[in-house]
């Protein structure tokens, strides 16, 4: 992986940084008594029920648990794609509940990258255009956006595939393009929701090696929701959810040592 691909952040995101965080070392993610209830039955459907934890900068954390335990709901709230029913979520000192619609959109563009199970590449855009899209939306000038996109495609092994459409890629290639897009704006937090779920074991391992390399070399904090024991083994810490409750928070003895 190229050094340029894993280079640290060189663009400030001061709109999403509160004054209280400047000059102070804080956990990147602080979740306090988080609850999420969806409308359904008379009592509602409780997806998260009083979850609290913190994640330090540069950690690689997996979220484990059976289907319906709240993993995806938690990632969507951390990524400012959904709002909690109760409780507090602070990212880099910023209380997400205090953000309006426009500020929330800026926060998602600049602070958070998201990798989904189903890739979500836009089918009518080329691979390069998909990767560049977050930069275009954030107002990057053409030349640095094109340069950054070229670095990213080289870093994920797709330098020769930039002008192809997503339909012309394999599943593993599409997910590598999705990872490149997720880190295009150099986010501090990378959220991955079952990123190997649609891949064979070889491509799944390649994606996990890519995420682990990004974590080690650029310092991006990675939070991974997964059913896969092989994928979870790349994390240094595991949060286990069941029925919307946090049942375990600690190091996983099977975690691979950094290389």
Structure characterization notes:
By secondary structure, the chain is an alpha/beta fold. It is built from seven helices and ten strands. It has helices at 71-78, 101-111, 127-137, 142-155, 171-182, 201-218, 229-232; strands spanning 29-38, 45-55, 60-64, 86-91, 94-95, 112-115, 189-193, 221-225, 237-242, 245-250. Helix 3 (127-137) crosses helix 4 (142-155). The model is unreliable at 9-24 and 253-259 (pLDDT under 50).
Number of strands: 10
User: Spans of 5+ residues with little confidence (pLDDT < 50)?
Assistant: 9-24, 253-259
The biggest sheet, with number of strands, parallel, antiparallel or mixed sense and barrel status, is: 6 strands, mixed
Mean of pLDDT: 87
Strand content: 15-25%
What secondary-structure arrangement, pairings included, does this model have?
Blueprint: E1 29-38, E2 45-55, E3 60-64, H1 71-78, E4 86-91, E5 94-95, H2 101-111, E6 112-115, H3 127-137, H4 142-155, H5 171-182, E7 189-193, H6 201-218, E8 221-225, H7 229-232, E9 237-242, E10 245-250
Parallel strand pairs: 3-8, 3-9, 6-7, 7-8
Antiparallel strand pairs: 1-2, 1-4, 4-5, 9-10
Helix pairs in contact: 3-4, 3-5, 5-6
């Amino acid at each position: 992986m190229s050094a340029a691909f894993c280079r640290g952040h060189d663009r400030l995101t001061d709109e999403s940084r509160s004054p209280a965080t400047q000059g102070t070392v804080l956990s990147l993610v602080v979740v306090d008594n988080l609850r999420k209830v969806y409308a359904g039955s008379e009592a509602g459907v409780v997806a998260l029920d009083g979850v609290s934890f913190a994640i330090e900068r540069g950690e690689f954390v997996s979220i484990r648990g059976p289907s319906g335990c709240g993993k995806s709901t938690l990632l969507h709230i951390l990524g400012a794609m959904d709002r909690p029913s109760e409780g507090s979520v602070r990212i880099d000192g910023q209380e997400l509940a205090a953000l309006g619609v426009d500020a929330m959109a800026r926060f998602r563009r600049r602070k958070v990258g998201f990798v989904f199970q189903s890739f979500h590449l836009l089918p009518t855009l080329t691979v390069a255009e998909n990767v560049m899209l977050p930069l275009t939306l954030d107002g990057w000038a053409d030349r640095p956006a094109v340069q950054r996109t070229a670095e990213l495609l080289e870093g994920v092994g797709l330098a020769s595939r930039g002008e192809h459409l997503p339909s012309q890629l394999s599943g593993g290639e599409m997910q590598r393009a999705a990872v490149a897009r997720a880190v295009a704006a150099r986010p501090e937090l990378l959220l991955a929701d079952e990123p190997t779920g649609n891949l064979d074991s070889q491509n799944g391992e390649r994606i996990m090696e890519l995420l682990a390399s990004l974590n080690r070399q650029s310092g991006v904090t990675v939070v991974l929701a997964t059913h896969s024991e092989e994928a979870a083994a790349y994390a240094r810490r595991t949060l286990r959810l069941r029925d919307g409750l946090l049942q375990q928070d600690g190091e996983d003895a099977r975690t691979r040592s950094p290389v």
